[in-house]
User: Fold this.
Amino acid sequence: MALAGGSLYVGSALAVGLFEVFPPAVVAWFRISGAAVLLLALHRPSLEAFIDSRGFNAAVFGLATLSMNMLFYEAIARIPMGTAVAIEFLGPIAVAALGSRSLRDWSALILAGAGVLVISGTVLSDSLSGIAFALGAGAAWAAYIVVGSRIAGTAGASWDSLTAGFTWAAVLALPVMVFFWPADADMPTLNLLGLILGLGLLSAAVPYSLDQIVMRIAGAAYFAVLQAILPIVAAIVGAIALSQWLTMAELIGIVLVVAAVALRRP
Assistant:
């Protein structure tokens, strides 16, 4: 899980370096498109994965994932990555709480809300829009979880749907990317293709593959607890790769969110 989080947020740190050339939304599309190309080459899903109700659900899943990535990248263009990840976790924790009547899940939601409030108070004066984008990413993450549960199945079927979803998202969002594409973007084609594939590998193909391994080894319940590692990994990668050192208040907020993630285990 630590390796998966490291790969995911190193990929995000790489994306931050591209924000000077391309808008965050375009970089997020690079990530999904690169992952789609890699997954198509690795898994070669059947045509049925792209059509009928199965293809429709995959397309909705892919668009939810793309929206989550776009909003997250817009957030980390404005606020520290560790802070954005902690705020974003409010989405999946809310899904767990709203789908349950247990005191533990509601306590986790309260803890996460308190953590987000603490974090928000420290960065509010710097970037209200960054907080708004991180909250939007959390809402998209919640949608990603709800829609993703519809395409879950056997390992092979899940990979087919994941590949089809990313492919549909990359294709359907292409007209929007043409609109957002900066007129002054100047990057050699081979360099651009390398960055797209690198983003797809680090931010999608590797983390998702490692998640599957962790799920098989640890089971769903412990996997949920291990999600608490992600805000910590994001804060460490942000500090080392982007020099985004967090304040004590932000660290306290992240600790509260981590506690909430651990508390909401199934």
Q: What stands out?
A: The two ends are 18 Å apart (CA to CA). DSSP finds twelve helices and no strands in the chain. The mean pLDDT is 82. Residues 2-263 form one domain.
